[in-house]
Design goal:
InterPro entries: AmpC-like, Beta-lactam-related, Beta-lactam/transpept-like. Its EC number is 3.-.-.-. It is built from 19 helices and 16 strands. The protein is of the alpha+beta class. The protein has a single domain, classed as 3-Layer(aba) Sandwich (Beta-lactamase). A 9-stranded antiparallel beta sheet has the order 3-2-1-14-13-12-11-10-9, with helices on both faces. A 3-stranded antiparallel beta sheet has the order 4-8-5. The longest helix is centred in the first third of the chain and has 33 residues, at about 5-35. It is globular and about 55 Å long.
């Protein structure tokens, strides 16, 4: 039977509806299967709301691409997968690789100093390397005073800044040996007026705590006011206003003002001024003939390094030393020449048992508190330190599996660094009269060379003997 035109239209419409329904069911089935094997985050990513937000974001970030989309072009946005940086692999020193020719290492270091001098990297610098009780290298480069062209010599006196802290701890140890003081002497027992924000905690604070920076105060408390020439005694009194970051004795917080309480404790225990005791028990016995305390003594030295600041790209200009950190003598008050520091280094490495006993040195160099931030403080530390702690006036590093006793110091216009390997009785000290970072990187280069570790140009110096060194700086 022939179908009318109306019937044919109805059949066509029903067929179209059937096809559409079939396609809808197929799409739903496919979506369901896809959801079963696709993470929820990916499904969420396909939601209309997410697409809308992505479109808005895309439009805001890349208007040109959004405009292209309006013209019918689709721009794919591909997210780069997160790639974690490779972990730093710290090498481990092998005792079989340690240098047998320490004098040769000193000659290498001497050539590095040639590079620093040639590049005008410092105004003036004095350095020494010691093995056992022998000075392998003593070198001065540059000028004590650029204006007068006075060269740096072995007797040129520099400020030691925080290298002074080891002298304070060593004096305390000598007084302990004489039974004039004890490591567990409570500060409040000899300084009754002293207090902290935690009054009960202040009663527990010991000599050992202040010399290892375990007072509980925030790092460098009131150093900013000291630099504004606020009197030391006033700042000590104001320590009681500062909330503690941890209970006394529980954590590390580097201090200059609180550390210098050891000077007041020394006077209360001996009846003598702190610097007199250091001169009597350390400087004179060790033959540190040009070592002194204070600005007046510095400027009264026969040869002393003026502080300098950079002028232009390759010039230096001297300026007058500032007084403020001399007000905290135990923390930052020592002046010394490289010849003084050679004797100090020999003694700290066990070469003067008549002055510093092995038992005292063991106590001074025993770590007491973790200093976690120190491991990340510079590229060479990140590349070499497994651990960093503070002892009594000294930092103690696990340097590629070997103990390194270390300290650095800085005040305006002066820098200093000292480090030694007790196991090998090998160490070095440097002092310079400007704020260049270059010499700081020379120390780990020297230690690396001695231990036979992979060589890295931590100082970023230009020298010809190791062209394969990787660049770096402190």
């Amino acid at each position: 039977m022939a179908l009318s035109s109306t019937s044919r239209v109805l059949i066509a419409l029903l067929a179209a509806v059937a096809v559409a329904a079939s396609a809808s069911v197929a799409a739903a089935t496919k979506k369901s299967k896809t959801a079963q094997r696709t993470p929820a985050a990916a499904v969420a990513k396909k939601s209309p709301a997410t697409k809308k937000n992505a479109a808005v974001s895309k439009k805001a970030v890349a208007p040109k691409k959004a405009a292209a989309g309006k013209r019918g072009k689709q721009v794919a946005v591909r997210k780069r997968p997160f790639v974690a940086p490779p972990p730093i692999v710290i090498p481990v020193a092998d005792s079989r690789a340690v240098a047998h020719d320490a004098a040769g290492i000193a000659r290498d270091f001497d050539r590095w100093l040639d590079g620093v001098e040639a590049s005008n990297g410092v105004a003036g610098l004095s350095a020494a390397i010691v093995k056992d009780d022998k000075v392998l290298l003593e070198r001065g480069i540059g000028f004590a005073d650029v204006t007068t062209r006075e060269p740096v010599s072995g007797d040129t006196v520099f400020r030691l800044a925080s290298l002074s802290k080891a002298f304070a701890a060593t004096l305390a140890g000598l007084l302990v040996e004489r039974n004039q003081l004890h490591w567990d002497t409570r500060v409040a027992d000899v300084l009754p007026a002293f207090t902290l924000n935690d009054v009960q905690g202040a009663q527990k604070l010991t000599v050992r705590d202040i010399l290892s920076h375990r007072v509980g105060l925030p790092h460098n408390t009131y150093d900013n006011l000291l630099e504004q020439d606020e009197p030391y005694q006033l700042l000590v009194e104001r320590l009681g206003e500062v909330p503690l970051t941890c209970p006394v004795g529980d954590c590390y917080g580097y201090q200059n003002i609180a550390f210098s309480l050891i000077g007041d404790v020394t006077y209360a225990s001996t009846g003598d001024f702190y610097y007199h005791q250091v001169e009597k028990r350390i400087f004179h016995p060790l033959g540190m003939r040009t070592a002194t305390y204070g600005r007046e003594a510095l400027e009264g030295s026969k040869s002393w390094a003026r502080p300098h600041h950079r002028v232009g790209a390759d010039s230096w200009s001297p300026f007058a030393p500032k007084e403020n950190y001399y007000h905290v003598a135990p923390a930052a008050g020592v002046n010394a020449s490289i010849r003084d520091m050679e004797q100090w280094l020999i003694a700290q490495m066990g070469g003067r048992p008549d002055v510093l006993s092995p038992q005292l040195l063991a106590t001074l160099h025993t770590p007491l508190v973790e200093t976690e931030r120190e491991k990340r403080a510079s590229p060479w530390r990140r590349g070499r330190l497994f651990d960093a702690q503070y002892a009594l006036g000294w930092r103690i590093y696990d340097y590629a599996g070997t103990t390194l006793v270390f300290h650095a110091g800085a005040v305006q216009g002066y820098r200093a660094i000292i480090a030694f390997l007790p196991k090998y009785r090998f160490g070095a000290v440097m002092m310079w009269n400007c704020e260049s970072a270059v010499p700081m990187g020379l120390m780990p280069m020297l230690i690396d060379r001695y231990l036979g570790l992979p060589e890295v140009n931590w100082a970023g110096i230009d020298h010809g003997d190791s062209p394969d060194l990787a660049g770096g700086s402190d």
